[in-house]
Specification:
Two copies of one chain form a homodimer.
Chain A: E1 4-9, H1 17-32, E2 36-41, H2 47-58, H3 64-71, H4 73-88, E3 93-96, E4 103-105, E5 114-117, H5 120-127, E6 131-135, E7 138-140, E8 146-148, H6 153-165, E9 169-174, E10 195-197, H7 198-206, H8 214-222, E11 227-231, E12 239-242, H9 246-249, E13 255-259, E14 262-271, H10 276-286, E15 294-298, E16 303-311, H11 315-329, E17 333-337, E18 340-346, H12 356-366, E19 371-377, E20 380-386, H13 390-400
Parallel strand pairs in A: 1-2, 1-9, 2-6, 3-6, 9-11, 10-12
Antiparallel strand pairs in A: 4-5, 7-8, 11-12, 13-18, 14-16, 14-17, 15-16, 18-20, 19-20
Helix pairs in contact in A: 1-4, 6-8, 7-8, 10-11, 12-13
Chain lengths: 409, 409
């Protein structure tokens, strides 16, 4: 009787009526193979931006509850249009909003977290032989207020529904056709990966690969939902994000990511005494500034430099906070650098292979690229370098780890 | 502790963020007087038309359930924006969709009828000191599907909420500032009426005055909701639509309406035998064509002409139906005339005054205007005349019944 498949189509895939009709054809094809289909969609094209602009024109400090009321309409338009497009192709279909399928969240408007999903109406509609079309990005509180899930929310809806329905797979249709060993715009010989583990995908998402948001991958990992990232515009299979298996460990490095959206801040000659780091990062946390890599080295004179990276857009706010902190703790001052890039190699195989970091450093050294900061995790090594070397570093590492070659089966 | 007031603002009153802010100021003024406020709004400007165009671009024969899913988003955008505009003025406010306030309808999508309203969340929000903003035009079925109420649906939402909440008044804000003795564009000396009865308003709505849809007036009459029709853009009081009282009967004629949107069809020389009218109008009803005035005269030769009026947009479909019927019953054929106008005088005082119809006929006769069809009700007399005389007829009647003069108190 076929599989139960959840498909998710993003805003660019449903940007206009013609694209909605071609999504409908794609869904109908899967249904024709005997699969039961649940389709999650985003708002059409730039609709959400247009709604945000309306909100901005009304007030600079809107109530998040009311923002959600406005934003949730974008997806609601798409579901109605897609359901009628499917029906026009002779496929019984039925649309539901997030609240209608019992997507219950907490009450943190504009970035709500999913609590549970009842999905009763989905089961009933599937049992009635219908293709079910669900609005991504939205849910409701226990008391029935409309909420939205924040950035990447529609992916999360797809994964969460797949988990709740125990679907065989969650297919995420997007404008790239899978996860690559590196950004193909930078490395022409980059290779599409057939499979990556949840942990690798998590590192890659956090490290700058924009295919899937980390939040959705975490959710998929937690509930062991196989996620198939694939292209809306091509029929080929994409990349399956799935549980780690033994064969994955044979490959030391799976992929290379780079992130050019960060800035580096340093507090210079900080007195080396307990509680300093807490003062520095506590002040940033209060301003909701999320820092990424942190490096601290104790100098010989009992003072130290603390450096960290953060999203470039937060740099100015952070500098203001830090200037005050630097004064308070008697540091020499604050230095900022926007012209940095973070390059990372990722692979679950690193757990059982030594010498990976050393090979990264020697590769960069051969190209005369100076490493400003280093951080490592169990399955990743990241280096901050001068921005102008970003592409060179990615290409050199891709080459050094032979990622362009298909691994032995 | 002030009154409980329901206000309704139409699409042109909330067409852009600036207009929404000025509606918010208007609402805030009423709240500042100590009134408890429930505000019903339509979709912004031409939003509903744009949504209909999207639907049309997807399929020519959409599922009405999915059409409602799409259309209901228009009002949902407005409520969020208005609620945040009110909050920005320091007024606690909260928005609700039709489903959220328990606006339960039947399942006839795109023209659902209201069954009952729970309004629990409205009471709770009012008790919490909030201005409540509700999406007009929409509701839900018992099983939670989104429905819309059809044309004039937002007025109906306002009136129905006022009835359910036992509000002191339902204020309908619109781009005209009240109900006039005649269209001021036609009769410069037309006078704004301070009060009209539900029945008069019903006749006027049905007869072409576009201020309020007949459906909303019927609902207001049934539940004795006082409806105040007034201008969004001017502070002056408008017209109160209310229960008939004795003073109203002293005025014989309240107003004059005209409708230029109709056409006249005649079936010529119909054999005069039982069942003919049923054949003619049964055929039209099957095509969902609503006819208005019907006139039949038995001629001397045992045959008769049947004439009726209908919305001009339905004329061609009706002609096709009638051509077949005419053949079947042995009539001579069908004649159509688009160049007609219907002019009517309305007033509850007619019930107790004789000679009104006679004065209408003599007034038109003096102007050499030929009357093609006549129909009368308890409180109205309508005449179909050649279209080119429409303005002349309205002015002559307005003058003959001295409607420009303020009635004696």
């Amino acid at each position: 009787m076929g599989q139960l498949i959840v498909q998710k189509y993003g805003g660019s895939s449903v940007a206009d009526p013609e694209k909605i009709k071609s999504v409908a054809r794609r869904v109908a094809e899967s249904a024709a193979k005997g699969h039961r289909m649940v389709v999650v969609v985003s708002a059409m094209g730039k609709t959400t931006d247009a709604l945000v602009a309306l909100v901005d024109a009304v007030t600079p400090a809107p109530d998040p509850r009311e923002v959600d009321m406005v934003l949730a309409t974008g997806e609601q338009v798409t579901i109605g249009l897609l359901a009628m497009a499917l029906q026009a192709m002779g496929r019984p279909a039925c649309s539901f909003t997030g609240p209608q399928v019992g997507m219950v969240t907490d009450g943190v408007h504009t970035r709500a977290r999913i609590r549970h999903i009842t999905a009763e109406r989905i089961h009933a509609a599937l049992d009635a032989g219908k293709i079910v079309v669900v609005a991504g990005f939205q849910g409701m509180t226990e008391s029935g207020d409309v909420t939205t899930l924040g950035r990447g929310g529609s992916d999360l809806t797809g994964v969460a529904l797949a988990a709740a329905l125990k679907a065989d797979v969650c297919e995420i249709f997007t404008d790239v056709d899978g996860v690559y060993t590196a950004d193909p715009n930078v490395v022409p010989e980059a290779r599409k990966l057939a499979r990556v583990s949840y942990d690798e995908m998590l590192e890659m998402a956090a490290l700058g690969a924009k295919v899937l948001q980390a939040r959705s991958v975490e959710f998929a990992k937690k509930f062991a939902v196989p996620v198939h990232v694939r292209s809306t515009f091509k029929p080929d299979p994409g990349t399956l994000v799935t549980r780690e298996d033994h064969s994955m460990e044979d490959v030391v490095v799976t992929g290379i990511t780079h992130d050019r959206g960060q800035a580096k801040l340093s507090i210079l000659r900080v007195p080396d005494r307990p509680g300093i780091a807490s003062l520095v990062f506590g002040g940033l946390a209060k301003q909701n500034i999320v820092v990424d890599m942190i490096v601290q080295n104790i100098g010989r004179d009992g003072s130290t430099d603390i450096s960290f990276t953060l999203p470039r857009g937060d740099r100015q706010r952070a500098e203001t906070v830090l200037a005050a902190v630097a004064k308070e703790i008697g540091a020499d001052g604050v230095a900022a650098d926007d012209r940095i890039a973070k390059v990372s190699i990722v692979g679950v195989g690193m757990r059982s292979h030594s010498g990976v970091a050393a090979r990264v450093f020697s590769t960069l050294s051969k190209e005369n690229i100076n490493i400003q900061m280093i951080s490592t995790s169990e399955i990743a090594v990241s280096c901050v370098i001068e921005d102008k070397y970003a592409e060179l570093a990615v290409r050199a590492l891709h080459d050094a780890f032979e990622l362009g070659k298909e691994p032995a089966a």
